[in-house]
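ugh ok fine here u go
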Amino acid sequence: MQKNDALAPYALKNYMLPEKGEKMKIYVFPHPHITKKSLPVTKFDESLEELVKKMLFTMYHYPGVGLAAPQVGVHLNLIIVDMGFDLEHLEEDDSTPLGHQADKSVVIPGYRLKNFGPIIFINPRILKSSEETRDYEEACMSLPGISEKITRPSEVELEFEDLKGETHRVMISDEWAVCIQHEMDHLEGVTFLDHISSFKKSLHRKKLQKYLKAGG
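structure:
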């Protein structure tokens, strides 16, 4: 996965995925949690830090590179992103025990994860977007089994708060910019299905209905 030098100062320092934690339920479109607009974060307290911990545990155990609070049923303007951690698929017959390893990696069912660098974006706001765009094949935890090539600005100027409520401004490009825009869509009750034709959206909606009926 890709590191981003511009964002490195804002990553949680020395983060290590805990061996135990709460894996939150991820809601699937068209659940109302996915289509409802979120509200600004106004309290920067222990409850916010606890929510972030749970979201991180949930995201890495999926495993995914980004998660927005509405996806776990919390309608606050909060997203977490880590496109730089190392992810290794393990063979079915791999006998490595689950949990923390001597090389500072963490083994979860089917995967080995290492070199975490999550960034917490609270009340993110895009101030400027580049005219230049890029196409990127996007997937989403709230749209299981579905991916589409989406066109977005290749660079954005982002303003956001951290867990202490301090405001930052940074230019972000390439895959990180795409991922952040994807996650910010969730805060508006939007998914990448809203960026494609109504015909394709209808087909994907039917797929998701079958997924949910099958107990997904």
